[in-house]
Amino acid sequence: MEPHLPLSIKLLATAFVTALVPVYARHYGWANFLWFSDIALFVSVAALWLESPLLASMMTVAVGALECAWMVDFAWRVVLGRGLLGLTNYMFDARNPRFIRGLSLFHVVMPVLLLWMVARLGYDRRAFVLQTLLTWVVLLVTYCCTRPEDNINWAFGLGSKPQQRVPPLVHLVFLMLALPAVVYWPTHLALRYLFS
Questions:
Q1: By CB distance 3.0 to 4.6 Å, which of 42, 46, 47, 127 could disulfide with 58?
Q2: Distance (Å, rounded) from C-alpha 167 to C-alpha 181?
Q3: Interval 175-191 mean pLDDT
Q4: How many other C-beta atoms lie within 10 A of the C-beta of residue 81?
Q5: At CA 63, angle to CA 58 and CA 69, rounded to 5?
């Protein structure tokens, strides 16, 4: 059977991730790879090679809308000089070398790549449930194994800093319920409609 996805894209994505991993690990530390966008990057490469509709669908449900929000925030900052959502503040932090900030532009390519894969491979309806379960595992690991001040995946507060209004576990449970309800479910419905 002829592959659906070009070898050139598989090789390019693999080379990019191979270059990104040691640079990110050295600059940000290994915990940085728990961010949903980084997980989506790695799983997307696996989805390319395996030509897996399920993996591509899960990652599109997980980060498709969030990456679009990242792009809006980045464009807003570039055009108007101030952040809209605070998602891309690190892209304008001079403490981060330009090369590393340049690597972070994968956020712009990610939703396009994911939608392209889903269009080529089809949308797997199991993505919503399985991505929700994966998200819960990642959030629990993030909460238990990372520092609150890093606030990876916003496990300790919405935004760049931990919140102080409610007990940390209450916030975590809120996030575990809100992501599937507010982000994943609408994305799932849209993908199911577009690529059924």
A1: 127
A2: 21
A3: 98
A4: 8
A5: 155
- Residue 2 has what pLDDT? 53
| Distance of alpha carbon 156 from alpha carbon 125, whole angstroms | 30
Query: What's the rounded Cα separation, in Å, for the pair 71 and 105?
Result: 9
* Paired tokens of 10: 């598989």
Secondary structure of residue 30 in the 3-state scheme? helix
Distances (CA, A) of 67 to 40, 50, 92, 112: 10, 23, 17, 10
| pTM (two decimals) | 0.93
Tokens representing 71 are: 């792009």
- Tokens describing residue 134: 């994966």
User: Greater confidence, 160 or 80?
Assistant: 80
Cα separation values, 118 from 27, 161, 192, Å: 32, 34, 10
Tokens of 46: 């696996």
